[in-house]
Design brief:
Radius of gyration: 23 Å
Order of helices and strands: HEEEHEHEEHHEEEE
Protein name: (wild Malaysian banana) hypothetical protein
CATH class of the largest domain: Alpha Beta
Organism: Musa acuminata subsp. malaccensis
Strand order of the largest sheet: 4-3-5-6
CATH architecture of the largest domain: 3-Layer(aba) Sandwich
InterPro entries: Glutaredoxin, Thioredoxin-like_sf
Shape: elongated
CATH topology of the largest domain: Glutaredoxin
Pfam families: Glutaredoxin, GRXCR1-2_C
CATH superfamily of the largest domain: Glutaredoxin
Structural class: alpha+beta
Distance between the termini: 67 Å
Strand content: 15-25%
Helix content: 10-25%
Number of strands: 10
């Protein structure tokens, strides 16, 4: 039998850490389930600063429109502002909201608003950014780390409806039949409760 004093002392355990690729989108010092800094409720309560709203599309049907949406998104991300992106291809209500905000005028995507004030489309945003006017205009808005990606939706801003699981149908026991789910949009999606404000 070996003498216990002959055994080597236990090696100090190396702290477990994830590779950079897994931790890139999380804020250091906070658990991964923490709300983003642009969350609807900050530590002091609701954020009263005006919101930047970007109406865009994720469909690549018209390449120029898709590229314009992508470039405006990149400009806003580079300015580190929190953006409430509203993809009109995922929810028809966003298209109706945009038409109402522009009072029926014809429009092309993307369109940017700060609060209820219209800022412009892709060309106006590019010109203001190149002239340095856009950064000044967005000084008082909520900020967000450009590397942040929501853990709930992966940055898509939508999630499958928890009521109908995206099927858009709910079984009503009393009537013993299926009905249209009233919680989700025409695609069976709801706004992400973690990152949409």
């Amino acid at each position: 039998m070996a003498d216990p004093s002959d055994e080597a002392p236990p090696a100090a355990k190396k702290p477990f850490s994830l590779p950079r690729s897994f931790t890139y989108h999380h804020h250091p010092g906070r658990p991964s389930i923490a709300k983003p800094p642009s969350s609807r409720f900050a530590a002091d309560g609701p954020d009263k600063r005006p919101k930047v709203v970007l109406y865009s599309t994720s469909l690549r049907g018209v390449r120029r429109t898709f590229d314009d949406c992508r470039s405006v998104r990149a400009i806003l991300r580079g300015l580190r502002v929190a953006v409430d992106e509203r993809d009109v291809s995922l929810d028809a209500a966003f298209r109706r909201d945009l038409q109402a905000a522009l009072k029926g005028r014809p429009f092309a995507l993307p369109q940017v608003f700060v609060g209820a004030r219209w800022i412009g489309g892709a060309e106006e945003i590019r010109q203001m950014h190149e002239a340095g006017e856009l950064a000044k205009m967005l000084e008082g808005v909520a900020r967000q780390d450009p590397a942040f990606v929501c853990h709930g939706c992966g940055g898509v801003r939508f999630a499958p409806c928890p009521t109908c699981s995206g099927s858009r149908k709910v079984f009503i026991e009393e009537e013993r039949r299926l009905r249209r789910c009233l919680e989700c949009n025409e695609n069976g999606l709801v706004r992400c409760p973690d990152c949409c404000y």
